[in-house]
Design a protein that fits this description.
The protein is of the alpha/beta class. The protein is 57% helix and 9% strand.
C-alpha cells in the first residue's frame, strides 16, 4: 500500500505561519530536503519536515494545514477500495499491512538505519495522526520482538540500546509536530523511579499528554521516588505519571511507592503503567488510575482535561 505523506511548500508555510516564498527558498537551498514531481513541483515528505523542524528548532503552529487528517481518510478510502476489489476484509488488510510495516521498521532499527526508521514512523504518524498507535502498535511489538531475539542470542545488546537511542531522537522530532499547549492548560508531570533507566516509554507518555493539550514536565528516568515527590509538591500537577518498566527490588519499591502515593498533593491524580506492574503487584499499590496501553492513557488524558475545562479555569 502506497501512502503519499508529503506536502506542498504552501501547506508547510501555513503550518509554520511563514511565507510560502521562505519555504521555497529553504527548499532550493537544501535546508529542507525536497522531492520533485514529474511536473517539477516541490513536495516535502513528512520525514524531511521532521528533520527540518529539529535542525532549525522550529515547531508546527497549525497542524491542520498539512492535512494529516485528510491523509488518514485517503488511506482508509484506499484500503476500502482495495479490499472490495480483492474480496477481503479491510480490517484484515490493514492489520496485514501494519504487520509488514512493523517488520520493516524492526529490520531498520536492528540495522541502525535511522533514515529508514524515520520514514517508517512518519508514515505511521500520517496514517494515524497521533503517538498512541505508534507506541502500542509499532514500537511496543518491535521491542518485544527484539527482546525475544536477544534472549535467543540472535541480536546483541548494543542493537537494542542503539534502537532505543534512535527512537528517542525520532520521538523528539515528532514532538515538534505538536503545537505548544496554552499557558492555562493543566499540568502533567512524571518520570521513572530509581533503578528504572528506560526512557522510551517516558518520552512517549509526555508527548501523549501534549497531544491532549496538557503542559508537561518530564522529570526523567531513574529518579528516586523521594525526589519525584519533592517535585510534585513544588509544582502540584493535576496528573502525575509513573512509568514502571523495571523494578530491582519489589519490597523496597512498594515501601517507597506507598510513602510517595500517600504524600502526593490531594489534587494530584496518580496514573501508573508499565510492564513491570504485574497483576500480582498492582493490588498492593494505591493509585488513581492504571493504563496498560498508551491508547488508554491518551483517552484518560483527554477525558480528564475535558472535565477540568468544564469545571473552570486551571492554574
Amino acid at each position: 500500500m502506497s501512502i503519499d505523506n508529503s506536502f506542498s511548500p504552501k501547506q508547510v508555510a501555513q503550518a509554520l505561519r511563514v511565507s510560502e516564498s521562505s519555504v521555497k527558498r529553504w527548499c532550493d537551498r537544501g535546508v529542507i530536503r525536497t522531492d520533485r514531481t514529474m511536473g517539477g513541483h516541490r513536495r516535502i515528505p513528512l520525514e524531511h519536515l521532521m528533520e527540518f523542524l529539529e535542525s532549525t528548532n522550529r515547531r508546527i503552529v497549525d497542524p491542520t494545514a498539512i492535512g494529516l487528517s485528510e491523509e488518514r481518510q485517503r488511506t482508509r478510502d484506499e484500503l476500502q477500495r482495495l479490499s472490495t476489489a480483492l474480496g477481503t476484509d479491510s480490517a484484515e488488510m490493514q492489520a496485514a499491512g501494519q504487520f509488514s510495516m512493523q517488520k520493516q521498521f524492526e529490520t531498520a532499527l536492528l540495522a541502525g538505519d535511522e533514515q529508514q526508521c524515520r520514514k517508517s514512523i512518519s508514515t505511521w504518524y500520517a496514517m494515524h495522526g497521533s503517538m498512541a498507535p505508534i507506541a502500542d502498535d509499532l514500537l511496543a511489538p518491535t521491542f518485544h520482538s527484539i527482546g525475544a531475539l536477544w534472549q535467543c542470542g540472535d541480536v546483541d545488546v548494543y542493537q537494542e540500546r542503539r534502537g532505543c537511542e534512535i527512537c528517542i531522537r525520532l520521538i523528539h522530532e515528532l514532538r515538534r509536530l505538536v503545537p505548544e499547549p496554552m499557558s492555562s492548560a493543566p499540568l502533567a508531570m512524571g518520570g521513572t523511579s530509581n533503578g528504572d533507566p528506560y526512557q522510551v516509554a517516558n518520552q512517549l507518555i509526555e508527548i501523549i499528554f501534549r497531544e491532549a493539550g496538557w503542559r508537561t514536565i518530564n522529570l526523567g528516568s531513574s529518579v528516586p521516588l523521594e525526589s519525584l515527590l519533592v517535585a510534585a509538591k513544588k509544582y502540584t500537577p493535576r496528573i502525575f505519571w509513573l512509568s514502571v518498566t523495571h523494578i530491582e527490588d519489589e519490597g523496597e519499591f512498594l515501601r517507597r511507592f506507598d510513602a510517595f502515593s500517600r504524600e502526593l498533593p490531594k489534587v494530584t491524580m496518580l496514573v501508573v503503567g508499565g510492564q513491570a506492574l504485574t497483576d500480582r503487584l498492582r493490588p498492593r499499590m494505591q493509585f488513581s488510575a492504571y493504563c496498560d496501553s498508551l491508547k488508554q492513557l491518551s483517552a484518560l488524558a483527554r477525558n480528564v482535561r475535558s472535565s477540568l475545562v468544564g469545571s473552570g479555569p486551571q492554574l
